[in-house]
């Protein structure tokens, strides 16, 4: 835009509150509700007993006896998020109760209709996503701040560890999310010192995310993750176990297909990529953009707003400030390292665990909770979101490295 042409297109500084992003918790839902209003007691009762109901193969019969409840009594986004969390966990248990060879083709109307309505109200798909599994699924156990999940599935302590370590990674990202806002503001104001400060804070936050992710090894048993937990995160898109998708009874006569939970649904890395101008391959970009539809609408809008802001990379190249370029490269390097470490985690928890399960050597520890029969095989080489997991992760790691500013 030429000077004097008007100001409608002038980008405004980002403000976290505009996108329902918390200064303290980032993309995590601050202090989520743990109970729904009284009329929704039947949902809560089933949700709180999911591991036992699934282990005893009673969940489906319990769902069939569940009353058809109206979503009209739900008020505010906290109640809607808890309802989505509860209905998504019940749905995953219902679908996968008998393992990948005992799936159903129809989700009954008393579950499908309210789940669809709550999903429409939030702009989320009617399936368990990262927004439910992690962002809205935490509570304080006691005043000391010890954390626990609100709703659970089979997997015992390993499932709890998987959710809470992922939550700690999200929490570690918060200074980086705030640094994005600071960086965009600094570019608009041409404040190089403030920009330098923001980039250093971003690099530090990404490093802290890697440190948090390392705790996965302390709290999650790979055999339990692969043979017990993983199937409940699987969706009905690009999944050979459910090639036709799922009919949501009372919503649509045609089956619908949705991807399972995936780290690619976390808004954090999308936001960092947008700020740093990281460009992934066409195939990876298509998958990542599809995963954005599994994020809460305001968070998706935040990523899009960063994409519309002035280019950080172009600003640095034109400034020629070596301190800024060095700080930028430290951010990119930290992000590539985080993605490399994610590959290490996936290798241990999926690739090696799958090989052991295939060889019949996977024996979940005492803390595993109930198993659902033989280890799943439909997604041996794919992520629960449906991507070809190793080629995707290596591709995004490599294209991240290519985002460095070369001297």
TrEMBL record:
The keyword Oxidoreductase appears for this protein: yes
Binding site for heme b: 342
InterPro entries: Indolamine_dOase (IPR000898), Trp/Indoleamine_2_3_dOase-like (IPR037217)
Keywords, comma-separated and alphabetical: Dioxygenase, Heme, Immunity, Iron, Metal-binding, Oxidoreductase, Tryptophan catabolism
Cellular component, GO annotation: cytoplasm
GO molecular function: heme binding; indoleamine 2,3-dioxygenase activity; L-tryptophan 2,3-dioxygenase activity; metal ion binding
Entries under Gene3D superfamilies matching the protein: 1.20.58.480
Region (Disordered): 360-386
Record keyword Iron present: yes
Gene Ontology biological process terms in this record: 'de novo' NAD+ biosynthetic process from L-tryptophan; immune system process; L-tryptophan catabolic process to kynurenine
Pfam families for this protein: IDO
Superkingdom of this protein's organism: Eukaryota
Family to which the UniProt record says this protein belongs: Belongs to the indoleamine 2,3-dioxygenase family.
Protein name according to UniProt: I23O2 dioxygenase
Gene that this polypeptide is encoded by: Ido2
């Amino acid at each position: 835009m030429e000077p004097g042409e008007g100001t409608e297109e002038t980008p405004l500084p980002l403000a976290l509150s505009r996108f329902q992003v918390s200064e303290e918790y980032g993309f995590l839902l601050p202090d989520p509700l743990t109970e729904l209003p009284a009329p929704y007691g039947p949902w809560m009762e089933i949700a709180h007993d999911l591991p036992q109901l699934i282990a005893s193969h009673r969940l489906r019969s319990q769902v069939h006896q569940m009353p058809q409840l109206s979503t009209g009594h739900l008020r505010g986004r906290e109640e809607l998020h808890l309802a989505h969390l509860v209905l998504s966990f019940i749905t995953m248990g219902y679908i996968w109760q008998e393992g990948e060879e005992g799936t159903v083709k129809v989700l009954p109307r008393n579950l499908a209709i309210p789940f669809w309505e709550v999903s429409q109200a939030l702009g989320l798909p009617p399936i368990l996503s990262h927004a439910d599994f992690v962002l809205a699924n935490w509570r304080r156990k006691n005043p000391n701040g010890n954390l626990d999940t609100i709703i659970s599935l089979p997997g015992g302590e390993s499932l709890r560890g998987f959710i809470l370590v992922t939550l700690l990674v999200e929490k570690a990202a918060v200074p980086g999310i705030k640094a994005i806002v600071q960086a965009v503001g600094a570019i608009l104001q041409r404040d190089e010192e403030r920009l330098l400060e923001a980039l250093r804070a971003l690099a530090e936050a990404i490093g802290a995310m890697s440190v948090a992710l390392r705790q996965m090894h302390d709290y999650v048993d790979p055999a339990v993750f692969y043979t017990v937990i993983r199937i409940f995160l699987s969706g009905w898109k690009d999944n050979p176990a459910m090639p036709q998708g799922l009919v949501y009874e009372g919503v649509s006569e045609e089956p619908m297909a949705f991807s399972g939970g995936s780290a690619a649904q976390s808004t954090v890395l999308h936001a960092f990529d947008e700020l740093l101008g990281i460009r992934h391959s066409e195939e990876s970009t298509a998958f990542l953009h599809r995963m954005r539809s599994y994020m809460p609408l305001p968070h998706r809008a935040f990523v899009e707003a960063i994409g519309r802001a002035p280019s950080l990379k172009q600003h640095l190249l034109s400034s020629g400030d070596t301190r800024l370029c060095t700080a930028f490269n430290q951010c990119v390097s930290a992000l590539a390292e985080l993605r490399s470490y994610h590959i290490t985690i996936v290798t241990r928890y999926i690739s090696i665990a799958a090989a052991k399960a295939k060889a019949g050597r996977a024996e979940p520890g005492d803390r595993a909770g109930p198993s659902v029969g033989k280890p799943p095989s439909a997604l041996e080489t794919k992520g629960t979101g449906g991507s070809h997991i190793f080629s995707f992760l290596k591709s995004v790691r490599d294209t991240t490295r290519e985002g460095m500013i070369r001297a």
